[in-house]
Design brief:
Blueprint: H1 10-29, H2 37-58, H3 63-89, H4 97-109, H5 115-126, H6 160-168, H7 171-184, H8 198-222, H9 227-253, H10 273-279, E1 283-284, H11 289-295, H12 301-306, H13 315-328, E2 335-336, H14 338-354
Parallel strand pairs: 1-2
């Protein structure tokens, strides 16, 4: 990973005042930045739903009931990841560091993915160097998609805005079966190669086997619906989870409004870290109670990137401070309805597939 240096600009003073105002807010309210009673309720709720729907699925008496409960379980697990795993990875789901680590490990590893690999790269790469190729782990170098100007433009990329939704169906399956497995072989579709410690390699293999055990093998063994129905439910679940996952996260950083900054020969960006976060993240319906509750604050992405040390249950209260200071310091806060962010995402795919040089369009409310 290429480590970068940042410059000072209006984003620096914005970030300094933002932190001061946020500290003042929590001090005056006499509350912690970590999760509160609402977060405890969400933790209990989502884990309970995971267990409930799995129990109903594994004891289903009809094929239709089996499919319904299988998919409901998959949806519940995804919402657990949005609401619990993510905040726990940042150490803010609860006050205790130990329980944050436990919550993150349980909720992430039991999905068949490796908590250590995702947590480390998310915090030390994506959050630091958002949208910078060679520094942000989430910038893809996949030949089927062209995501940055430096990647070669091929004839079929002009159709990527059309075939993207179909490939998005495979996102979760690719993550489970190939993404981390290829990392073990020091190969990845990411622009950064990853080394995984031996003990994490062991965990990665064990949890993937456990996942296949309780998601495929156990239902086949206990139920009489046939292995075909179990495999189909498994695939449909991953298709659903993939579309929702990409639909929630893809529009935040892959948009024709956002930038993909390039550093100079000395690995220095011509902007501050706070300004980088503001020009590479799109927020949608940031003040929506429904989205905050279901998506765990992922819809307020710029806010989260700048304040990852705050649990998402506080976002709605601190959002007015964030907006006010962004305007005061002349920083463009890209906030819009979801439908507009989705349209922007597909315009980005189309533009990147047809133009060698693709510049973001100015954002205006």
């Amino acid at each position: 990973m290429k480590k970068l240096k940042f410059s000072k600009d209006e984003g620096s003073t914005f970030y300094k005042e933002l932190n001061e105002r946020i500290e003042q807010y929590f001090s005056e309210k006499g509350i912690r930045k970590t999760g509160n009673k609402t977060m405890i309720f969400k933790i209990i709720l989502y884990f309970s739903l995971d267990i409930l729907f799995y129990g109903l699925m594994i004891t289903s008496t009809t094929t239709l009931g089996f499919y319904i409960f299988y998919l409901l379980m998959g949806l519940s697990v995804l919402l657990t990841a949005f609401n619990i795993s993510h905040d726990a990875a940042h150490g803010v789901a609860v006050k205790s560091k130990f329980w944050n680590k436990v919550l993150f490990s349980i909720s992430f590893n039991l999905q068949g993915n490796n908590a250590y690999v995702w947590g480390k790269n998310h915090n030390e790469s994506h959050h630091l160097y958002t949208n910078v190729e060679g520094s942000d782990i989430d910038v893809l170098n996949n030949p089927l998609f062209r995501m940055t100007e430096s990647q070669e433009l091929k004839w079929f990329h002009r159709y990527q805005f059309i075939y993207a939704p179909f490939l998005y169906l495979l996102y979760s399956l690719n993550w489970f079966f190939f993404r981390e497995t290829l990392m073990l072989l020091n190969y990845s579709s990411r622009t950064i190669k990853i080394e995984i410690p031996r003990n994490e390699v062991f965990k990665l293999v064990i949890y993937k086997l456990l996942y296949l055990g309780y998601m495929i093998i156990l239902p086949i063994y206990l139920l009489n619906f046939g292995w075909e129905n179990v495999l189909l439910a498994f695939l449909l679940n991953h298709f659903m989870v993939s579309l929702l996952f990409v639909g929630v996260l893809g529009v935040s950083h892959l948009s024709d409004y956002v930038e993909h900054p390039v550093s100079d020969k000395n690995n220095k960006l011509d902007m501050s870290w706070p300004k980088l976060q503001m020009c590479t993240s799109v927020d949608y319906n940031a003040d929506s109670i429904f989205f905050n509750w279901t998506l765990g604050g992922f819809n307020a992405h710029a806010l989260h990137h700048l304040l990852p040390n705050i649990c998402h249950v506080h976002y709605l209260e601190i959002l007015p401070i964030f907006r006010e200071l962004a305007q005061k310091h002349g920083l463009n806060y890209m906030e819009m309805p979801y439908r507009k962010s989705l349209a922007s995402h597909f315009r980005f795919l189309k533009g990147m597939g047809t133009q060698k040089s693709f510049k973001p369009i100015p954002f205006a409310r």
